[in-house]
Amino acid sequence: MRPANVVTSVADILAGIAISGILTAGFAIPWLSVFYLCVSTACLYAGGIVFNDVFDAELDKIERPERAIPNGIISLQNAALLGSLLLLAAIGLAFLNSTASGTLAILVAIFALLYNKFGKHHSFFGPLNMGLCRGFNLLLGLSIVPEMLYSHYYLAVIPVIYIFSITMTSRGEVHGGTAKNLYLAALLYGIVICAIAYFAFINDRLLWSLLFLLPFTFMIFKPLLKAIKQPVGKNIGAAVKAGVISLILMDAAWAVTFDALILAFVIAALLPVSMGLSKLFAVT
Q1: Which pLDDT does position 232 carry in this prediction?
Q2: What is the value of pTM for the model shown?
Q3: How far apart are CA 271 and CA 38, in angstroms?
């Protein structure tokens, strides 16, 4: 279920909540809604990853025999049941917040399944498909105030671009890849960083945003540059792992950009949690 990755999906929700403005509007914080959305996204991510292994069971016998299904730790049927229960629980929890939240959870689940079954085999639509999952996930957090979806929906484009680049890069982590894709990933990373910096600038929060954007930039580019020099599977896998976990710092930058400084530090505090889990469980 990739616990380290699940933590990053919770960071997405917290970033969306920060963007909604509910923390700075002077209203009481709806803690129950925060709980529903955080657990919902955790179940969505875990369920999607489980189905990734379900659909890849035959291929994993060859490429990743250490995974739970080909290794015989769990049967294919039980894995599919677990994935189904996680996705259904995610959708139910999201509907407890609002119809908009429930609808977004359904979209994330659908696109996750589409990626696992079809999208991952396509060089363009696969990364786009996975990017949409993260984009909708940010909006799921934003949906804590459903009305804000109408005015801030376009911000979902940023995580779509970022995850597009990570997913595209990940295609070379088994057999190695080409520097061309990695250069494109570097360009897309740069676009994401500049976009967040732009919103921070117009909101007069650029200096605070740099507190998270600078380590974010370092964390994603250091392994990526190494992979560009030597595009072998091990280096590409490290770049992908760093890209996924670094999402937490990107989400912290989003939070401080929308004047939620305390929440930004709370989100950033998830980074060591995710990094610790990444040492115990696979990230890619």
Answers
A1: 86
A2: 0.94
A3: 16
